[in-house]
């Protein structure tokens, strides 16, 4: 149940020249992604796979929150297709959740974790039974993810605003270790962009020319108290990232084909401008009464309502 | 301007009559279901927003700021009544604290509200440099302190805040344990020249102090029960638990003093020394790391007061642990912060 | 010696309607600026006055640091003309340093204070004798300014990154109190723009439509460790502020006429976009060996060198 | 990339042969004059950058980060030798700490350096959430701690950091007092699995420990002098002052124990209890608010160790004061943190 740290592996083996560690840069031997998409074309199978995975995320989120009796349905629902795409081949991960040269995913909007745990169980990183005890005493799965207790979680989060800095550190470290194909993904909330530390990290990412860093903004139009532009403006998101030295792409965050096309055909990670993908989404997507609702950032569906809502999801 | 009531902006109208304009209707029909709006109404002791709204009716100096958490801390109650004096800064807590400092220089008394984890740790430098050092009358409503956010985990817990704040010159730190003491603390400190850190719970705290209770007085330990066998020093959620434990002990013929050490800074050393005898027994229970908080304040007070040979026990989060994942009440039970935990630790201490 | 706080004045006098305090909005009765420039035209006298005042700042900085035996010459020298212009009529201040409706100046780059104290002495806000004991035990004048001990200092500073937030609070408060002509000025360093809190404040200023807020960036090209673009990029400053919803003007920060024209002809403070003035300057301006030098962020000129440098300044 | 040596970028070449490329020449000829480069060389005990540069020769895990302060903390010494493993993040301390945490997950051991005021208070939440909670081996070089920045004033002072950090689970806090103990602390903690906060002075500290001294051992109080009349507990700058005071007392026939309580967390309670007798006298002198720091740790240790009736005196920054403006040594004298101050407080305590 405890994620082993990379700290123990690979160091001290050889000296290496200064600034580069001794291990040989990795091969793909370990990669076992579900379905690695070819460059450019997005197959119908892949789209179907992403759709199925997103549906699974939405269903499981309802089931898990029924255990917790409180949770962030809507923050998961806006990100369901994004997460499904990442875990359907966009991310370079392997059977071993601690494979050193894997891509990393930093859940900067850590409250999306309840939607990620089912993906980790699906991949066999964690036991399915853990899901049934989500948030119960002694269980490692909380509302925010814990890297030390949950294999497949690359960093502990919960405090908004930290994740992009983590990503900068990881991207810099990946370069230093010579992991030329490793990409660092950071999932950010849109209201989260209010945090100043995001911009400290953004400036550093472009200054250090970390083209192996990809930030995905879940542009679901809302924070906790309401519409982002009403609570505290974050627009123009594209303009802000560009002014901080980033490349920016925009994509429909609920369109599996578009997401797959964007996220699986990125250039090889290297040196250059980091990339921000603005995923246009709807907070609560998939459940009518939750979509862009001001009262559903946090909530709980008791069994009867949960069942009714699951039916609504199935019919979609 | 965030000062004005949200004007709808594409939201459908509410079907719940008690929701402010712009809320959408939640669908649930199962009575056990709830959404953010319903959750807000479950927080019966989260009355700071409401109390400030009342105080502000007659006091133009009061302004309220929050950081995208107006429902969680119910400063939305203030916004409804005084929209022009309410400022939502988005998720930017450090800016909020410093902005409040700027407003204070114009004669305002700003109340800034966010989770205790962010109010204290994320804003530590702003509290010190922008509030405490210039001595500005900004009040920090640090809610969901300790491990009140349960399975949200360490990022949302604040079990280091008292340690930080006890070392901060000019800072006043008060921990009310229920609705009435929260109201009293707000009223008592209105004219305090310097900053205030109000450490608040999650809003589900049962009543401890009767309405209008004169017993809760900022700066003075409240002796809620008197007894010579043992002194229990409590604070926040442990006050009610300590009283319950004391009642059980009383039924067994053991007489316990229960102190609410709500004002952690400046600490009422005299009040404590009056209540703890040399050679006596003291149990401190707090929702904080066992190092640096109320227990430390008590030990220092006794040592300085020359009260020696006190048998001391502490209940809190162990020195080198971060709390597990679980609902808050389960965590309170796990860490012995509930009545049962206090009772069993008290029994052990009495047997020593 | 202790600055009285505004807290004691004006409140409780009358109730006022919600959100607006009872005091009547101020008149100009209290204003006694040195020379209030007319809109548009910048007189030769004003230019000469600014030049003289900037020269005084540079001289006094050398004298004061001789007492302290350590100080920030170059950070003052880039800002000398800016400060001189502010104190030559751009700022609406009065004989009483605590006049409620005065303009405020927040020294976000607080280490410029040694160049401001002489201006406060010149205006009679503080006794000239205090300067002679700059940084000595018991003296209120330190490397960073203390609003509680130094009349004329509107906020205590020293920690970079806080000042724009202070300014947002003051601008919001000025509006709430009905001080329609009060402007809040914030002097920022360029490397200081690295601090995330600056951007938290920047977004809030435009969101709250604080057109009574004016940020001046001392674009002296350097932080402490070297060139800003080498240490950690801040460019494009204009692009960043614009993306955060600000109007931006650029000006030669060593040209008194240009500064006066820009700073004394701003529109009445009101509701709208806040204004950022990028003042292009040279760190250390006026002393050849200090200009854009990497070793002179901090330093000390012992008497012989101080005298020699004063002569260099006089000949300029 | 900040990793490479600055390439000139418009600067004229240095005329001082010992300056790295890109430095401009300072004009001064008066021997008492100095600039940043000269000031750097005056900081003889600021050897962390140099020590790390040496350690890094054989250890590819070591990387160093700073926030536009490489000259003030002399991590420039590290940059010269290992430019690819040096990262300047500009004035963005919070990002620096969290970025280091990200690097640590790849097996690196990052050392982040900035003024203690910012390393502790500004980055408090990052230290807790990103380093201590996940237990990552990031080391914080918190230099110019306490009131070492003298007339820079409160924004640049750190007299609350120990209070904060003592309440932080998983955190190790060590305060070396000279060059040798700094080097030892760095070496001793290299393999520490969790985070470390190294509280450093301004780099002008005189030698206390001889080179290669085995007496300085992280985690254990160092008894630098033994005597039965009084125990002085010192830390950081007060160690040398305490030794000097003890020497004067010895000349008068009064025998003093001097303890260097350099490891504040975890605190060596046993070591302290071994050195302080019941009924004895203890004087604690520290460059910190008198609440929450070393003195608090001592009092708690004694109370838990059952050592009662100890007459205790504290020297530090008074509970509700921020230090005055003055050069550091003047402040040390003013607050009684120098040999004379310790001596006179010791005399008073002995007379009580
Ligand atoms: C530093 C910090 N402040 C406040 C919170 C509380 N909080 C949790 S979610 C949330 C709103 C997040 O909005 P957004 O970033 O847009 O994410 P979404 O849920 O919409 O995907 C807030 C304020 C937090 N987790 N961290
Ligand atoms: C939060 C914070 N971090 C670090 C410092 C130390 N420091 C003082 S001045 C300075 C460089 C400032 O550069 P810039 O903002 O460009 O101002 P300049 O001196 O060039 O006008 C630094 C890093 C500080 N005062 N505050
Ligand atoms: Mg959102
Ligand atoms: Mg600069």
Structure description:
Chain A has 316 residues and is an alpha/beta fold. Chain A has helices spanning 44-68, 73-77, 80-90, 113-122, 128-132, 163-176, 196-207, 228-231, 237-243, 256-264, 303-315; strands at residues 104-107, 184-189, 213-219, 247-252, 275-280, 299-300. Chain A is globular, with a radius of gyration of 19 Å. With 352 residues, chain B is α/β, with parallel strands linked by helices. Helices cover 34% and strands 18% of the residues of chain B. Chain B has helices at 36-42, 48-57, 76-81, 93-104, 116-122, 124-132, 161-166, 179-188, 237-251, 269-275, 294-304, 328-334, 339-351, and strands spanning 34-35, 62-66, 86-88, 109-115, 139-143, 172-174, 196-199, 222-225, 230-234, 256-260, 263-265, 281-289, 311-317. The model of chain B is unreliable at 1-18 (pLDDT under 50). Classes of the chains: A alpha/beta (316), B alpha/beta (352). Chains in contact: A-B, A-C, A-D, B-C, B-D, C-D. Chains C and D meet through helix 8, strand 6 and helix 11 of C and strand 1, helix 1, helix 5 and helix 12 of D. Strand 6 of chain C pairs antiparallel with strand 1 (34-35) of chain D, so a sheet runs across the interface. The complex binds thiamine diphosphate (2 copies) and magnesium ion (MG) (2 copies).
Total number of strands of chain A = 6
What's the rounded overall pLDDT mean of chain B? 92
| Content of β-strand of chain B | 15-25%
For the largest sheet of chain A, list the strands in their spatial order. 1-2-3-5-4
Could you say which overall geometry of chain B the principal axes of the C-alpha atoms support?
A: globular
Report the structural category of chain A: alpha/beta
Which labels suit this protein?
heterotetramer, A: 316 residues, alpha/beta, five-stranded parallel β-sheet, globular, disordered N terminus, B: 352 residues, seven-stranded mixed β-sheet, five-stranded mixed β-sheet, 34% helix, binds thiamine diphosphate, binds magnesium ion
